[in-house]
Amino acid sequence: xxxxxxxxxxxxxxxxxxxxxxxxxxxxxxxxxxxxxxxxxxxxxxxxxxxxxxxxxxxxxxxxxxxxxxxxxxxxxxxxxxxxxxxxxxxxxxxxxxxxxxxxxxxxxxxxxxxxxxxxxxxxxxxxxxxxxxxxxxxxxxxxxxxxxxxxxxxxxxxxxxxxxxxxxxxxxxxxxxxxxxxxxxxxxxxxxxxxxxxxxxxxxxxx
Length: 208
Ligand SMILES: Nc1nc2c(ncn2[C@@H]2O[C@H](COP(=O)(O)OP(=O)(O)OP(=O)(O)O)[C@@H](O)[C@H]2O)c(=O)[nH]1
Ligand SMILES: Nc1ccn([C@@H]2O[C@H](COP(=O)(O)OP(=O)(O)O)[C@@H](O)[C@H]2O)c(=O)n1
Ligand SMILES: [Mg+2]
What we know:
By secondary structure, this protein is an alpha/beta fold. It is built from 9 helices and 7 strands, in the order ββαβαβαααβαβααβα. The two termini are about 25 Å apart.
């Protein structure tokens, strides 16, 4: 890719270059750990763009498209949708916002090491990974409570258990993978929301 000179001699940056140079923060944690809650607060304080991979998928389901129907079936089972589908959605959403964004919070992605590797190939490298950590029983309790009002078809006991199992199996290795690069900040999400956010803010303030 790279930059190309236009007729006027100006340097033109392609969309790919622009998102590659953007500030990218991965937000990783188990289902119901509080990723979305913290991301909202980061948006309010820092003006970052919040992209929840789960929300992007749910928007596709809500559109009623054929692709949405396939996705709904996978999500209902608590399984992972194919990597390319999520990655393309994230990339399109980033391109749409890159000119007005101070940085991106990529929430609920990567779900497995391979997703992280592909993201870096197709988009760019994260400068920080916020690891939102809560106990299994806390996450289940929060999700059962959220399920009373969320309308999310995966907020039921059976699917929650599958999401949690998959998190421990597939997603926790992501944290080890990025720890070796020194960009992981572990955040204790058992604390009250505002205290959790204090730690999140410290991690973000520490970025250059
Ligand atoms: N007590 C307490 N509850 C929290 C905290 N963070 C989130 N919650 C609650 O836990 C539930 C799940 O929080 P979300 O922010 O939706 O969690 P998430 O990690 O985005 O969950 P998924 O979208 O399922 O991955 C919500 O009902 C929140 O109100 C916290 O720090 N403390
Ligand atoms: N990167 C992603 C994100 C979500 N998903 C799917 O979307 C569902 C909901 O994702 P989410 O991030 O909103 O919620 P949690 O499963 O983390 O609680 C997951 O259970 C997966 O089925 C996925 O397959 N790949
Ligand atoms: Mg969420």
